[in-house]
């Protein structure tokens, strides 16, 4: 199942940039009433954006639990995914700006919270949750024949299996492989690890 992040969340975050820029100039003492109002407005916008994110997460996890008996998911290392691009102030790494946008998207999605909600809602509904180890080659394995590519860069969104010729969308192929791995684990197959 492929779900997109709500456009409302990005719209809720837009006012933050200009307001934060105004507040970043420094605080002069004594604090004026206008500055207090500005901080209050930033707090309201931040709270609204957080509420939009929480609402989306709850609706997503509830629909997943209602529609599926077994839920297979990859245990993601969010801290590693959101790590800053390598480099220093003198010699910045390549694609630092693009990486910062990706980091923001990864952290805004709240994968850890989604996993937590899926687990407790699955218990309530009597569903099964299987977590697949993050090192399982879900994106590199052909879901048709099982061939595993030696390497697959993150920028490659489509690839063709050299063994069977099947064309794959990276994310859809990974989700099929994660589902099949979850079913194999439940059936007692060897060679797959469940992440605890």
UniProtKB/TrEMBL annotation:
Keyword Transit peptide among UniProt keywords: no
InterPro entries, per database record: Cas12f1-like_TNB (IPR010095), Transposase (IPR001959)
One GO BP: DNA recombination
Family per similarity comment: In the C-terminal section; belongs to the transposase 35 family.
Record-annotated Cas12f1-like TNB domain positions: 111-178
Keywords per UniProt: DNA recombination, DNA-binding, Transposition
Species annotation: Ferrovum myxofaciens
Location of the Probable transposase IS891/IS1136/IS1341 domain: 5-83
Identification of the protein by name: Transposase
GO terms assigned for molecular function: DNA binding
């Amino acid at each position: 199942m492929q779900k997109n992040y709500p456009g409302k969340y990005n719209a809720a975050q837009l006012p933050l940039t200009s307001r934060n820029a105004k507040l970043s100039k420094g605080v002069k003492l004594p604090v004026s009433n206008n500055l207090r109002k500005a901080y209050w407005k930033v707090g309201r916008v931040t709270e609204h954006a957080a509420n939009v994110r929480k609402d989306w997460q709850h609706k997503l996890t509830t629909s997943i639990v209602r529609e599926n008996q077994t839920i297979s998911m990859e245990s993601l290392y969010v801290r590693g995914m959101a790590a800053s691009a390598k480099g220093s102030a003198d010699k910045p790494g390549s694609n630092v700006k693009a990486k910062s946008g990706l980091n923001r998207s990864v952290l805004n999605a709240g994968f850890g919270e989604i996993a937590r909600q899926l687990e407790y809602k699955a218990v309530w509904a009597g569903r099964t949750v299987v977590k697949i180890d993050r090192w399982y080659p879900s994106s590199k394995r052909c879901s048709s024949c099982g061939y595993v590519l030696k390497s697959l860069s993150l920028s490659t969104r489509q690839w063709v299996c050299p063994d069977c010729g099947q064309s794959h969308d990276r994310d859809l192929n990974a989700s099929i492989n994660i589902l099949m791995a979850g079913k194999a684990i439940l059936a007692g197959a060897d060679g797959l690890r469940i992440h605890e």
